[in-house]
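Much of our argument rests on the idea that a fold can be written as discrete symbols. Part of our work consisted of pairing the sequence of a single chain with a tokenised description of its backbone. We regard such an encoding as a compact summary of how the chain folds. The amino acid sequence and the backbone structure tokens for this protein are reproduced below.
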Amino acid sequence: MDTLSYKTVSAKPSTVDKQWVLVDATDQSLGRLASVVAKILRGKNKPTYTPHVDCGDNVVVINAEKISLSGKKWDDKVYISHTGYPGGQRTKTATQVFEKHPERLIERAVKGMLPKNKLGADLFRNLRVFVGEDHNLDAQKPEKINLNELL
């Protein structure tokens, strides 16, 4: 076997082909939607995936207010934040977060599925979540994908 006839090609930031993808969150489960979006952001759905390079696509999520949670998660799921002061821990349920900012449920779920380092922070900047059908990224011509086919 000639071992010089094939090589493993590692992607570089200059050789990565990034696309814009549009995802509709209507009637999607939060966790399943977030896992698919995280894979697309990371680039694991491409054959040129390289772990240390941002080779994923830019993702636009619309209809964030139509997401669904199963069971009693609307009341039992708790989001914790801290003000930075002693005794400054604050908790909110998924319902409380959803009433003010529905897009934050999706953002928080996807962020938790990305790497906890500089690469993960860069990948998270490739995500845009919008409430409703309208978004301001028409100039990028995002390609709409059907999540039910990917699940």
